[in-house]
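Worked Example 4.2. Consider the chain below.
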Amino acid sequence: MPKAYEEIADDIRRSIREGTRKPGDRLPSEADLARHYGKSVPTLQNALRLLSGEGLIDKQHGRGNFVRRPRTLAVRDNGRHQWEKNRAREPEATRAETGATEHDTGLRLDDLVFYAKYRVIDAPDELAAPFGLPVGTPLLERTYRTRRTTESAPFNLVTSYLVRDMIAANPDLLDEAKEPWPGGTQNQLHTVDIEVDRVEERFTARPPTPEEARALDLPTGTSVILLRKTSYDIRGRVVDVTFVTLPGDRTELLFTTSLERW
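Applying the procedure from the previous section yields the following structure tokens:
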């Protein structure tokens, strides 16, 4: 038999899903809701915590509980890498029309706010190994955050690493002010005569750290998907290692594999 707080949560959940309560609507006060359902305030608060954990409501301190606005879904499919490679040699005007985030979300460039930060670091063991280089080799660390203009949280948390000396022939590749770069990393590498041959992606999942939960504005109980992407050039060298933290509540991974015919 459902507990009292679960029955309250069921009723509020139904009102949200049926559209009686719309995204952004403020719920009545906890005291008013407790009176409406004929239950205690602690019971009502248990119901609200359940709905918050499902990502249906947000509690804003000092303001009350609000129906959570649905976040933009990002669909990350494995065809995106060929799509990026096809664009790498296109004219700049064509490359500037759209990027990977627009590809994943269906949004337009002017729907987005983009942030990039560069710094040069000495490769630690865990990065030197995949690149096959000595510890301490200079790497360019690039941090990216992209969000929709109407939302406060980014679509993901991205940190990418390139070998500094491998790209130094084009000084623009070391300058964060050149971001967002039309055509992304594959075009950047193309400017120094590097052609990406294959991309390896490994996915795992875990609960978020407190910092990740805050940065991605995750509902309680939502996991993150961790992506480690390694790009190889046509000579078999590792040319890019990228770590992406994806929010589990608004990321869909789509993999399509074409099979050879008998």
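The radius of gyration is 23 Å. The domain at 74-254 is CATH 3.40.1410.10 (Chorismate lyase). Compare this with Example 4.1 before moving on.
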